């Protein structure tokens, strides 16, 4: 028994001294580790601040209290004091306000990755819509090209129809001229009661398949004179012919470009027998042509068939000539 007590007296102090040394080392280690953790938290807070400034995120203040406000805490303390005054027998509990955890660097990175994923999804949607628009534009371009081809075909068809209509009108005019007018050999003459300038009258005759009348000899001239006299009797009207000297004064040509070799110019009446000849021209019927460069187109009088030169812009009756 004495040996046991002796062993206890020797071992227990050694164990107590070892435990005391271990506690001291543990406290020293905790102090060093606590300092390292504090430095790590400061570095993380600094990194989080720089990242929030780069991303434009609102910075959280250290003084904010997400769970409550100082006023509530003061109210709770006042209520506690009041209860203490009423009676100290009731046990009271002090409320515990847990502070909201600050966002860590992992939370920030997760948020950034989420935003980037959202942007990537948006860009994907934009690409999809652009592809759809490109497909639509290609379809519209193809349709427009087809419409242009159809329009070109229709234009050609319309041109062919216009040419066919023009040929039909010319053929109809030629037949009408020979049926309603007067025929002489391989020519037909048709009188028109429309007033036109010489160029416009020529255009209308051409549209009907002919041209202004071009009497090439005396026989054609006599036939045309009888026809016009019968159509306009008892009046005397000038009627446009297809004769002019627009190219050169005194050089008379037909509308087809051939030179005129037969003329039927009006001449003033001869003086009566026994009367003295007068050098002055007759005031009402002077010798023709007398207009110079001001009168370059020829019209035929309907009463006697004589030719008179007139201003080409004067609006007169006209007579067309058609081939038979």
UniProtKB/TrEMBL annotation:
A Pfam family hit: Lectin_C
SMART domains for this protein: CLECT
Biased composition (Low complexity): 92-104
Subcellular location per the Swiss-Prot or TrEMBL entry: Secreted
Residues annotated as domain C-type lectin: 184-321
Keyword Secreted part of the UniProt annotation: yes
GO biological process, one term: ossification
PROSITE patterns the record matches: C_TYPE_LECTIN_1, C_TYPE_LECTIN_2
Superkingdom of this protein's organism: Eukaryota
Record's GO cellular component terms: cytoplasm; extracellular space
Residue numbers spanned by region Disordered: 57-104, 272-295
Main location class: secreted
SUPFAM superfamilies: C-type lectin-like (SSF56436)
Keywords on record: Disulfide bond, Lectin, Secreted, Signal
Signal peptide: 1-24
Protein name: C-type lectin domain family 11 member A
């Amino acid at each position: 028994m004495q040996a046991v007590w002796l062993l206890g007296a020797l071992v227990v102090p050694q164990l107590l001294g070892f435990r005391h040394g271990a506690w001291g080392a543990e406290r020293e280690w905790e102090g060093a580790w606590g300092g390292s953790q504090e430095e790590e938290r400061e570095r993380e807070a600094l990194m989080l601040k720089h990242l929030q400034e780069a991303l434009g995120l609102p910075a959280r203040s250290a003084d904010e209290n997400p769970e409550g406000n100082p006023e509530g805490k003061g109210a709770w303390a006042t209520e506690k004091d009041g209860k203490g005054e009423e009676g100290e027998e009731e046990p009271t509990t002090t409320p515990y306000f847990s502070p909201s955890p600050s966002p860590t660097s992992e939370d920030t990175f997760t948020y950034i990755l989420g935003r980037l994923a959202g942007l990537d999804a948006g860009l994907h949607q934009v690409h999809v819509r652009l592809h759809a628009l490109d497909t639509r534009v290609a379809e519209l371009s193809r349709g427009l090209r087809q419409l242009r081809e159809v329009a070109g075909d229709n234009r050609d068809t319309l041109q062919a129809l216009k040419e066919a209509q023009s040929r039909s009108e010319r053929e109809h005019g030629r037949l009408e001229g020979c049926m309603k007018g007067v025929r002489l050999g391989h020519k037909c003459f048709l009188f028109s009661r429309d007033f036109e300038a010489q160029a416009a009258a020529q255009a209308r005759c051409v549209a009907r398949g002919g041209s202004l009348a071009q009497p090439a000899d005396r026989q054609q001239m006599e036939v045309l004179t009888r026809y016009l006299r019968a159509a306009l009797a008892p009046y005397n009207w000038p009627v446009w012919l297809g004769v002019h000297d627009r190219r050169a004064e005194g050089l008379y040509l037909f509308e087809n470009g051939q030179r005129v070799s037969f003329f039927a110019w009006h001449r003033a009446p001869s003086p009566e027998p026994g009367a003295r000849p007068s050098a002055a021209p007759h005031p009402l019927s002077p010798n023709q042509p007398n207009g110079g460069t001001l009168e370059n187109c020829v019209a035929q009088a309907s009463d006697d068939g004589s030719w008179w030169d007139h201003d080409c812009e004067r609006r007169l009756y006209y007579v067309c000539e058609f081939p038979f």
